[in-house]
Amino acid sequence: MKTKIYLIALVLISSLMLSCSSDDELNHQNDFEKSQSAWLDFKKSSNNSYKYVVSGGTVFSAYGWETTITVSNGKVIQRHFKYTGNTENIPDSIPLEWTEEESEINSYENSPAAEALTVDQIYSKAEKEWLIKRKDVTVYFEAKNNGLISSCGYVPKGCMDDCFFGIRIKSIQSYNPK
To answer: Of 138, 141, 166, 143, whose CA–CA distance to 54 is shortest?
Structure first.
């Protein structure tokens, strides 16, 4: 008899827990899904060929940086990096600007340049890493590039400076290879 009672209690508790779980596994799920849909439309209209610019910087310096990623037919073919702003304090041994062509993508290591990803890969990373629900972080998602992802990531609560984990995309535009 006790076994039946425990079994019934277990079934009731399990069903209660399942009914309370949310269908939303992501922060900003609705905005993310709308943006991803806009991305799929853009991807089709641009023949999966586009350029996007990732921006970055630090709170303490007077300079920032931009990385332009060029994608042709769904494949990254170029990564261009440049420091922006007041670059006087950057040592002469560090190049202020450089370009990697298809065969040398990601060869500049230990730089603040954005990783050479397709926008499909960025949406995947957003869904699997940056927007997942977790404690003790503030999550951000914006789609200011005509509905396409513009800022996505999180900041641990209590962090004061340069703690953003994610991506900031300044612009996304079609690319017509010649």
So the answer is: 166
Whole-angstrom Cα distance, residue 70 to residue 117?
A: 9
Token pair in block for residue 120: 């499909």
Strand-pair partners of 82: 66, 97
CB neighbour class for 87 (10 Å; exposed up to 12, middle 13-18, buried from 19): middle
Q: Distance (Å, rounded) from C-alpha 114 to C-alpha 19?
A: 41
Q: In this predicted model, what pLDDT tens digit does every residue of 21-41 receive, in sequence order? A: 344 577 899 999 999 999 999
pLDDT at 109: 83
Bridging pattern class, strands 75-85 and 97-101: antiparallel
**For residues 65-70, average pLDDT:** 97
Q: Which of 78-92, 119-133, 151-165 has the highest mean pLDDT?
A: 119-133
Identity (one letter) of the amino acid at 45?
S
CA angle 109, 114, 119 (to 5 degrees): 135
Neighbours of 86 (CB within 10 A): 11
